[in-house]
Amino acid sequence: MGGGKALLLHDFAREFEEQHGSVHFRLSSLGSYDGVLDESLSAAGTDEMPAIAQINEIGSMKARLSGAFKPAERILPGPVRSSLTDSVSDYYTVDGELQSVPFNSSNPVLCINEAKFEAAGLNPDDPPETFAEVREASERLVEAGVVDYGITFANYSWFVEQWFAEAGQELVNERNGRAGVPDEAYLDSDFGHDFFQWWADMEADGLYHNSGIKARGTAKKTFYDERAAMLIGSTSSLGSIQSGVEFGLKTGYLPVLDERNGVLVGGASLWIGDDLDPQVEQVAGEFLAWLLEPEQQARWHRETGYFPVCDGAADLLRSEGWFDENPHFATAFDQFQESSDTPATNG
User: Fold this and answer.
1) Are 254 and 335 in contact (CB under 8 A)?
2) DSSP string spanning 252-321?
3) Domains along the sequence of the chain with CATH
4) Could you tell me if 211 and 153 are in contact, meaning their C-beta atoms sit under 8 angstroms apart?
């Protein structure tokens, strides 16, 4: 994690140090989540093992099965799990124990160019909710000549995972890996066929701009340049999207095939190393509990776009009028809170 988000993490660490005079943090960035996980596993059992490692959600099973980390619930002081939003707690809880501390959590959201929608005779306040509606809107936008493409989003596995969850379709067997190590993927399911066919047809018919594998920045630029009237991006990018566009912006829920079951928790969580010095382990637990307090979570959300993972922070933001003043963030957070509790949405 780099840029302003990394600077905010440093601010949090320095503030905690000031409150606890004998505590000192050494923060390191390894450039990618994969790098953090690999380096942590290589350092397991040595003095180089990090006390806290930030690992993305897709690395959770590997981290849990590695034996290099201790379930966070055994270390956190007090009933921290009960303060978490249910969907976040469900995602990171296995066998009744919170495995890691949710922190930079996100989900996908639909962004709309208000003026382009209006120019094509579409209502930007009534965003497309289904694949069929996305296609219909894209056809009208392209046929009206107001954009080159109706929609753009990166060819990114995280989006695929989200769409499978929204359909209530587990991605792999063993209850999405929660009942055991999975050995079968459901990409060839009925939903998989319908989804991939829609996606392929959208590209073949010139309605979808394929920015490339993981090319989220290219997709955003296509949206900024008004070559596409819709973008699917991460809630963590909402702040930069708002400041990056030079047109009216509207947002909507992630479009689905038909029924809506809910989005997955994206982003990353904080894992505590196993076999740490007892004092280090205690401070790590106290720091993570402090990060989950409403004040820190509300600030993290306001300055990064990652949604608050505890109910107290959401209540604080509402009381401040944040969501009223920032409706795009409300769209993303409401979508997340409306997710059903199913094996598919639990991740």
Assistant:
1) yes
2) EPPPBSSS---PPPEEEEEEEESS--HHHHHHHHHHHHHHTSHHHHHHHHHHH-PBP-BHHHHHHHHHTT
3) 3-106+266-346 (3.40.190.10), 108-252 (3.40.190.10)
4) yes
Q: How far apart are the first and last CA of the chain?
A: 22
CA-CA distance, 177 to 160, in Å (whole number)?
17
Q: What is the largest CA-CA distance in the chain?
A: 66
Query: Do residues 113 and 319 lie in contact, with contact meaning Cβ atoms separated by under 8 Å?
Result: no
Give the Cα separation of 322 and 301 in Å (integer). Answer: 10
Q: What is the pLDDT of residue 105?
A: 93
Q: Which of 282, 252, 281 is nearest to 134 (CA)?
A: 252
3-state secondary structure 140-180: HHHHCCCCCEEEEEEECHHHHHHHHHHCCCCCEHHHHHCCC
Distance of CA 89 to the CA centre of its chain: 14
Per-residue pLDDT tens digits for 116-127 = 999 999 999 999
Listed as ranges, residues in the chain with pLDDT below 70 are: 1
**Do residues 209 and 149 lie in contact, with contact meaning Cβ atoms separated by under 8 Å?**
yes
What is the Cα Rg of the chain in Å? 21
Find where tokens 């819709």 sit: 230
Closest CA to 300 of 6, 8, 1, 29: 8
